[in-house]
Amino acid sequence: xxxxxxxxxxxxxxxxxxxxxxxxxxxxxxxxxxxxxxxxxxxxxxxxxxxxxxxxxxxxxxxxxxxxxxxxxxxxxxxxxxxxxxxxxxxxxxxxxxxxxxxxxxxxxxxxxxxxxxxxxxxxxxxxxxxxxxxxxxxxxxxxxxxxxxxxxxxxxxxxxxxxxxxxxxxxxxxxxxxxxxxxxxxxxxxxxxxxxxxxxxxxxxxxxxxxxxxxxxxxxxxxxxxxxxxxxxxxxxxxxxxxxxxxxxxxxxxxxxxxxxxxxxxxxxxxxxxxxxxxxxxxxxxxxxxxxxxxxxxxxxxxxxxxxxxxxxxxxxxxxxxxxxxxxxxxxxxxxxxxxxxxxxxxxxxxxxxxxxxxxxxxxxxxxxxxxxxxxxxxxxxxxxxxxxxxxxxxxxxxxxxxxxxxxxxxxxxxxxxxxxxxxxxxxxxxxxxxxxxxxxxxxxxxxxxxxxxxxxxxxxxxxxxxxxxxxxxxxxxxxxxxxxxxxxxxxxxxxxxxxxxxxxxxxxxxxxxxxxxxxxxxxxxxxxxxxxxxxxxxxxxxxxxxxxxxxxxxxxxxxxxxxxxxxxxxxxxxxxx
Amino acid sequence: xxxxxxxxxxxxxxxxxxxxxxxxxxxxxxxxxxxxxxxxxxxxxxxxxxxxxxxxxxxxxxxxxxxxxxxxxxxxxxxxxxxxxxxxxxxxxxxxxxxxxxxxxxxxxxxxxxxxxxxxxxxxxxxxxxxxxxxxxxxxxxxxxxxxxxxxxxxxxxxxxxxxxxxxxxxxxxxxxxxxxxxxxxxxxxxxxxxxxxxxxxxxxxxxxxxxxxxxxxxxxxxxxxxxxxxxxxxxxxxxxxxxxxxxxxxxxxxxxxxxxxxxxxxxxxxxxxxxxxxxxxxxxxxxxxxxxxxxxxxxxxxxxxxxxxxxxxxxxxxxxxxxxxxxxxxxxxxxxxxxxxxxxxxxxxxxxxxxxxxxxxxxxxxxxxxxxxxxxxxxxxxxxxxxxxxxxxxxxxxxxxxxxxxxxxxxxxxxxxxxxxxxxxxxxxxxxxxxxxxxxxxxxxxxxxxxxxxxxxxxxxxxxxxxxxxxxxxxxxxxxxxxxxxxxxxxxxxxxxxxxxxxxxxxxxxxxxxxxxxxxxxxxxxxxxxxxxxxxxxxxxxxxxxxxxxxxxxxxxxxxxxxxxxxxxxxxxxxxxx
Lengths: 579, 579
Fold this sequence. Notes:
2 copies of one chain form a homodimer. In chain A, 27% of the residues lie in helices and 28% in strands. By secondary structure, the first copy, chain A, is an alpha+beta fold. Chains A, B: Belongs to the class-II aminoacyl-tRNA synthetase family. ProS type 1 subfamily. Chains A, B: Keywords: Aminoacyl-tRNA synthetase, ATP-binding, Cytoplasm, Ligase, Nucleotide-binding, Protein biosynthesis.
């Protein structure tokens, strides 16, 4: 490509609304342009990145035996009603009507359509396993789209769906996809981590997320640097930090703690470590709608003062099947006879269901609210001052927590770019997608689903790797691999000739090169390519040529290297290998 | 590809709703599956065809210097209001609302978004010419979607938009696209014709359609087999068939023609050729809304009895700028004092505006309605019996019409798969897309737009080439180029080995081959591949191998050719060259 024949239009400043690096840099580099909130045009440079990601994903999906098809963007409501998602999916599902007032959706995923295909196409166990995927435009009507491609409304996603005879087959299909994802993110040149993830409302027994490591990520990833263990903090088991509960040493004392409605303030007032305190979190579960006599049930969850509640774990407690909410102040006053800030498990006004985090259940001589405004108990002990508690893992892992299998847990931030899911028969049951099994009887297809956020990957790669000059693309997804910058071509015609030679030579070697043949100042040219983030720059300068050299600089290197003109191509190819 | 790892699912019968060959065969061959009216899933085989077409289009667009980007499917109403198309575009434009009740459209084309990009990105004449294109999902909410991919609602289209400094530049860009389209349709292996087309409501001075020749096409194409001339019948000039008007020989006679309200019946009753008759067509033009005193104006258009009115041509008559309609029976009675069927230009009840087709204006001694039920005039002559008429080209060309530039005109049917358009400043004016010209002053961008119906091409190719066994793909867009069919592999292990050898050998040569390693009967296998339409089949049979031969059969050939096993690959490569 010659820059003069291409469209390059960088901006000095990004619009104020660009809050994150990827949004700011993709806008400044001219890779995307906003059309409406969460809806973008991929400009030529941005589309090249998108296509490269798509191609890697496609190649690896094909290699793994998945078969590409293309399901439509606009899907009929009837199928979504069959699966129940027409009702259950929130406002992010864009529901539309055609000219005849028939209901449709803009697809956010395609479980319904692919299951409909499966029930029509798969007749016999002989056709299994089967894995269909497509790379297609998705739409999610985010309430507040932001962060550019990180949380857009219209985006490109690869979604695959596996169909198997039984659970064992479905697990095997899941493993094949897991391995394919490992290869994909490896080939894309990203630092990433596969983490066990919550199966959430989709159910099933297994789920993994693929997370691009970046300080700006919204997800917290728990891992053990010494083992293979890695899980989203939502799911990661938090160990009990106290092996054996110590014998009580203190008496239970009602202690004045004026204006100390938080554990941090109590610990400070009493001169005790925060880890001696226990915090009280009051939740409520509502009765089922058909339960006429049903009462709201109030729960007291206890966590060590320095720990945080993990709401996903709370949601899995027995009795929380229909969901939970935080109790209202009125409910708290009614149950505890006290305002929030001084609540505790001893002497509640009414009986409440108490669940202690595993660590809290092993504490002794702890400090907790006294259900009296301005007072806490010190020296509280299980068994002596209050009954032995029911206990469960309620908290988020904290960096440094011991891993029960050895070593310690660490935490880093990530951006979710892939998710694999064991679905079981959730959709095949709803849509009655059956096949004739070896015994000649109909059986439900066992399914898995596997997503990759194609457009999100481009943003995640930038969040992971950029500097104050701009983007630093990994070679695999850079819009161009090499840029050749002639400097002083108007003074010395050899500059243009040699630039052209190197450009054509690299192209012949299959390298995606761009020759910047525009008539612009070198400083502007360099700054533009640093912003765009092309991994390797070759500068062919009038001055260098006098010494018989050109300069080669990797975007990620601090300085350029001079190489003899005749070795330029070989040196560039060599340097590219590790970019 | 191995068939056992792929998804092949053909149907013996197509659903009753499949009215045309392409819809029927794509459904039977398992290339598409209906999701809703006019909305289809491209199954794996169908998607391969789609992608091949896309790739040829992309390569040629890039070669022609167009730059690919990707504009969104969901576009904000504001831009469509700026262009005026929010109001003017009919019900085919699917207008939707997001969760915040803001208006959007599903794009049928992207003139608005691309012009918005241009007004933000193009600042200077130095950036011109520029041509942006994308290959994207389109949506047109057809009132009655049918014929499968021929008239779907969701479909894939390539649309390109050129931007130039001035009209001359825009014409040059148009010519470049015209040539690119010639290469594209040539490479796709289709019999096609570029025809001059009506510019319709879009305006501008030039437009060409690219038509795939097929007897089932909806468009009529007029061409001269001896010259380059070709035009859509909508636009094709119909010559005057009479060089000099002859002197009158007959008297004007009021002649009874009972129960003969059509020219055919009159000619029959009177024993005269149909070409001696003149038919009357009564049109009405309504006054402008702001024209308080405005009256409906009644027009009488006269055509020779064997000719058809061309409504596009009628729409261009002076006085028809705001459109026209056929007159109501009441209006006809009022103006002519007679029921339809016996109308004519002589002695109308009220004055009407008469326009004769060029040929009619040169007729003499002609037969026309007498404005009296059951009567016609014979021996009517211009100048003598009625005033000399205003005349214009009002009719469709008929096969065999002389071409004023020599030779005769022929007609064939076509399917429109591409359209290039000179737009001028229609959209740049509406959206105020300007650039700074060489004189430093802002000027409006001159535009062209260029569409190709990617998914429609696959259907058009089938309409052009199929037989009673199924599809006959041109090699360039076939889902696979060669299928290798082993026969009797269970009796002779050499069958499998040699099939495998040939398969791998062809793959190495870059041929897209599929090895049918499924355990199915040869008759079923052959019928399936004939239905799917793979251009070349190599049959490796137990019996053939005993003679040391395999059979090679092109899908378009009547019979197979036997070639020695060791020459199979070379023979296949050779035969492929002309497919």
